[in-house]
Amino acid sequence: MAEAPSDAARIASGARDRIRFEEEALALADQVYRVARHLAGSREDAEELVQETYARAFRSWRSYQPGTNLRAWLLRILTNLNIDRGRRVQRTPPMQGLEANDYFLYDKLAESDGGLSDEEKVVERLSQDDIVSALSAVPHDFRDVIVLVDIGDFSYQDAAQILDIPIGTVMSRLHRGRRILKRELAESVLEEGT
Amino acid sequence: MGHPDDPCAHCEEMMQPYLDHILNEEEKREAEMHLSECDWCRRRYRFEESLRVFVRQVVTEPMSADLKLKLAALRIPLD
Question: Could you report the predicted ipTM of this complex, rounded to two decimals?
Fold first, then answer.
């Protein structure tokens, strides 16, 4: 017997949907923070960004389509807020010699090691701190795609939607960004060696 | 197409797309064939692969309990 739901029932069902949305969003907070921490320059910036993101998400929860990727939806808000903060005025860095081939980091590490150890061990010459600081030296546009794809495990397609850029741009920034990251790592290794 | 005289340069070009799993079947076979017979490229492939894993595991200090509470407090109260 189809009966028009009473106003009270409709309100109760809306409230249930909202609570479910909030709970699902909060359950993703650690993952959102992890991406934010590497996108933003500092811990403080990351915390602010995550708070602003959740405030906005909770206000506009109705625009989220249940069943779609909530983590990507939250990160889209976050990356937009990050851009709004005006941190993005930057030029693309000129190509540097070290970026010319893809293997210079390996060559640099293997060389300082006498070239004898196996490849998995070569990477162990890098510390987590090396990666974190090298990543923070990568310009924003390039860092965003590395953080989303290589750390956040998003597909190219998701990253393109989150950042609102064409998928080809995701790929080219990723390509260039990974090389910049490796250049930064190679430089930090060189500094430690001196 | 490619580098007929320098299979290692061609392999270098395919390396990142290979790690991204975006090569088509034929390119993938080609890359795997070269990697199986070239020690120089294979070493670099293993390194690039382990670097990817290393970057993926990059440590982030966990979100503070304080921030968690702040986020929960942003929830819109039921009226």
Answer: 0.81
Place of tokens 């390119």: B27
Q: Are B58 and A132 in contact (CB under 8 A)?
A: yes
Q: Domain limits at A31? A: 7-84
Residues 6+ apart with CB under 8 A from A123: A109, B47, B50, B51, B54
For residues A130 and A77, state if they share a domain. no
State how far residue B71 is from chain A, nearest Cα, in angstroms: 6
Domain count along chain A: 2
Residues A182 and A123 in one domain: yes
Domain ranges of chain B: 7-73
Tens-digit pLDDT profile for residues A36-81: 998 887 889 899 999 999 999 999 999 999 989 999 999 999 999 9
B4 to chain A, minimum CA–CA distance in Å? Answer: 19
Name every chain B residue with its beta carbon within 8 A of the beta carbon of A154: none
The pTM (predicted TM-score) of the whole model is 0.81
